[in-house]
Design goal:
single chain, 232 residues, alpha/beta, Spore Coat Polysaccharide Biosynthesis Protein SpsA, Chain A, 7-stranded mixed β-sheet, 8 helices, 7 strands, 37% helix
Length: 232
């Protein structure tokens, strides 16, 4: 893939127990078409992911490690602090999100329209068909978040988000686990960020294939939306 001129990005990949996919994900990120700094933060994996990363050598890939499992939000904060380039993208360590879609989430940032872009799974992009109730839960969480943040997002919980680094480093984040998503949404809305949403592709996994988020995380997200709106 041809490199995109004069666009340097930092891609932050939080990873926990994804030894089967992390190598493919990093390879796809490096081939995304942009001059890319890849920051992988291992959240105390126990399945061989850490050992794989310790053997992995590439000048554009920087790996960091948690001594104990702290959660996705904590891993992202470490990655954000290490990012050097003007645009930062969050990439999950499984194969659900495709780095080829970076061009879509970067466009509103590059042309000056946005400070933050959500890659939505529900705006018409190609996606694997599965888990009706999971999609209902996502939409309910997004609805509640929209009510409290006065936004009109279709997919607050998406795992592909892009930012202007100068905005991101000014935001005080504290959520350690999957509650990172409602926290950054609430705080970005409160900070009056210009937020855009674009359709992306999505290849969801089954729980047998390694999907980790479940109903307990949905309950935690509901509680976090209320907390970050009224108590934080």
């Amino acid at each position: 893939m041809a490199m995109t001129d004069n666009v340097n990005i930092s891609v932050v990949i939080p990873v926990f127990n994804e030894v089967a996919t992390i190598g493919q994900v990093v390879g796809r990120v490096l081939d995304c078409g942009y001059e890319t700094e890849v920051i992988v933060v291992d959240d105390a994996s126990t399945d061989g992911t850490r050992e794989y990363l310790q053997r992995f050598e590439h000048p554009k890939v920087h790996c960091f490690y948690h001594a104990v499992n702290r959660g996705k939000g904590a891993a992202l904060r470490m990655g954000f602090a290490a990012a050097k380039n003007p645009y930062v993208i969050v990439q999950d360590a499984d194969l659900e999100y495709d780095p080829k879609d970076y061009r879509l989430v970067l466009e509103p940032l590059l042309d000056g329209r946005a400070d933050m872009v959500y890659g939505s799974r529900f705006l018409g992009g190609p996606h694997r068909v599965m888990f009706f109730w999971h999609s209902v839960g996502n939409r309910l969480i997004t609805l509640l978040s929209n009510m409290f943040s006065d936004l009109n997002l279709s997919d607050m919980e998406t795992g592909m988000k892009a930012f202007r680094r100068e905005k991101l480093v000014a935001l005080k984040l504290s959520a350690d686990r999957f509650t990172f998503e409602p926290e950054i949404t609430c705080k970005a809305a409160r900070a009056r960020w210009r937020i855009y949403e674009v359709p992306i592709s999505y290849s969801g996994r089954t729980y047998e294939e390694g999907k980790k988020i479940g109903w307990r995380d949905a309950i935690a997200a509901f509680a976090a939306i209320v907390y970050y709106r009224f108590l934080d």
